[in-house]
Amino acid sequence: MINTISPDIYERFKEKVYNSSLWVQEYQGIVQKRPLTDREIGLSLGLDEKTVREIRCVAELDFTPLEWWLAADSVKQKRWRGKKSQEDKAVEHPGY
Amino acid sequence: MNTQGIEEQIKTKARRLGAAAVGIADVSAINAYAPEGYRPDNLLQGARSVIVVAGAPTFAGAWKGTNARYMGIMPNFPTVRRAVTTNLANFFEVEHGYEAVQYDAALESGFTPFLSLKLCAEMAGLGTRALAGGVVLNGSYGLLSLAAVITTMPLKADQRPDRQVCPHPACVRMWEKRRTTPCLSSCEALAGELEAGQIKWMRYNRQLCATRCQNTSVGAFQKMLCEIINELNPEKRKLLIFSDFFGRTIRAIAFGSELVAQCWSCLKSCPVCRPNRSAAKIIQLPKGVEA
């Protein structure tokens, strides 16, 4: 049996773990605000490093819609030719 | 008799092997930023120096191609960088008796690498961070493809550039008129602001970027597989499995090509990169050194 985390643990911590990770990288000037490592996130949430790593790896894909992957080709191609469209904007991240 | 210092010998060797630019960083300078677990001396105990080698990600012709995918399927320095770093690592171990390892951005887990090559390149004086997702841009060469050798040999580190490569003056003028830059206007994964001709802040959405620059990749395969398994209608399931995208994704994984570096839309119009795309221009040896 593959050793995975329980769905309950994942549901409970996925947003906190994901939002503490490298998925969005912020810089003040050109100095990056360092995101937390799995070990550091674990310390803040009372979880071990391995559990945090599993939650993060699952969340990285879970929070990334399949539509982004499927739309990428046409988005890139239009931009490569210098065109932009409403379709491009449709795949914008909600936070952007 | 070779009268070059060891640092110059290393750089000449790296250039002869195919690197366009070479820089040396001190491990302690990298460790001041990298967290425990993601440092050079986590990859090699007792590491003292990191040699970062760099070259053109693709060919000048690919930048002018009619298909954005050409960037990903026509790599330039990425096809030789492992040979460069392997030869350099052997140089330290065999000729100088120091331990060394080569590293070219393997992932530790998920999308997280063992070590940030961008940080190493920055500390090795190869360039400064850019609005385009924090990539390192070099003032002479523009965008660089990176790899590194980590060694226990103590070396004199290179100086970091004394001025920022990004933003380019043309981008500052564009910002003053339109409140955007070529890179910021090209992709929703990027956000930022200029102030007094400098980067005030910037933000990079790695997950959105990954769907474009790692379009046919392991992540895409996992997402498609999940969709296929959850699809109850056998006809729809067939369409997903036989689709062009899923086929390309499997082919990319099977052949180890078109996995990364598939999108450079943010740098296509970058004024730092545009004049410096030609591999023929940037892969050159210093004066007096024969290939």
Outline:
The complex is a heterodimer of chains A (96) and B (291). With 96 residues, chain A is mainly alpha-helical.
Q: Can you walk through the features of this model?
A:
- The complex is a heterodimer of chains A (96) and B (291).
- Chain A has 96 residues and is mainly alpha-helical.
- Helices cover 58% and strands 7% of the residues of chain A.
- Chain A folds into 2 domains: 1-64, no CATH class; 65-96.
- Chain A is built from 5 helices and 2 strands; from the N terminus they run αββαααα.
- The radius of gyration of chain A is 17 Å and the shape is flat.
- The termini of chain A are far apart.
- Chain B is α+β, with helices and mostly antiparallel strands and 291 residues long.
- Chain B contains 14 helices and 11 strands.
- Chain B has a 4-stranded antiparallel beta sheet, with helices on both faces. A 3-stranded antiparallel beta sheet of chain B has the order 6-7-8, with helices on one face. In chain B, strands 4-5 form a two-stranded antiparallel sheet.
- Chain B is globular, with a radius of gyration of 20 Å.
- Chains A and B meet through strand 1, helix 2, helix 3 and helix 4 of A and strand 6, strand 11, helix 9 and helix 10 of B.
